[in-house]
Amino acid sequence: QVQLVESGGGLVQAGGSLRLSCAASGRAFSSYVMGWFRQAPGKERELVASISWSGGSTYYGDSVKGRFTISRDNAKITVYLQMNSLKPEDTAVYYCAARPGGSVRYTYWGQGTQVTVSS
After folding, report:
1. What is the C-alpha to C-alpha distance for residues 101 and 81, in angstroms, rounded to an integer?
2. 76 contact partners, CB below 8 Å, separation of at least 6
3. pLDDT tens, 54-63?
4. Distance (Å, rounded) from C-alpha 67 to C-alpha 60?
5. CA–CA distance from 107 to each of 41, 61, 80, 115 (Å)?
6. For 101, which DSSP code?
7. Cα separation, 57 vs 10, whole angstroms
8. How far apart are CA 98 and CA 101, in angstroms?
9. Cβ contacts of residue 38 below 8 Å, gap of 6+?
10. What per-residue confidence (pLDDT) applies to 76?
């Protein structure tokens, strides 16, 4: 069982930055692939970024490449999403999720944190 708690969301002007954190508890955190998803009103949930258990492999959605950076600190059992050059279209609820190694599904989810980017 893994429990995830996001923090760091808020209101920011376009062009600004925010850093989201996802604190995890539970066993075997370091063996999970971690991802950040987002869902805007009226839109489907999308995978924003993911990171392998070692941190050596990352994925970014096309809309955030070059602006967002995902990282993890297995000692602190925390995953981060650094978001720079924010745009109004980045406004959404951001969720942290964990996928067990070998699984194709993200099994554990946080409660989400709101990010609002004003123009």
Report:
1. 21
2. none
3. 888 999 999 9
4. 10
5. 23, 20, 19, 23
6. T
7. 28
8. 9
9. 45, 46, 48, 90, 92, 93, 94, 95, 115
10. 86
Question: In angstroms, rounded to a whole number, what is the distance separating the alpha carbons of residues 49 and 66?
Answer: 12
CA atoms within 13 A on the CB side of 36: 34
Q: Compute the Cα dihedral for 68, 94, 44, 41 and give only its sign.
A: negative
Q: What is the pLDDT of residues 88-104, one digit of tens each?
A: 999 999 999 999 888 88
Residue with tokens 């009103």: 41
Q: Tokens 């004003």 appear where?
A: 118
Counted residue by residue, the chain has a size of 119
* Separation between Cα atoms, residue 27 and residue 78, nearest integer Å: 13
- Say how many C-beta atoms besides its own lie within 10 A of residue 110's C-beta: 23
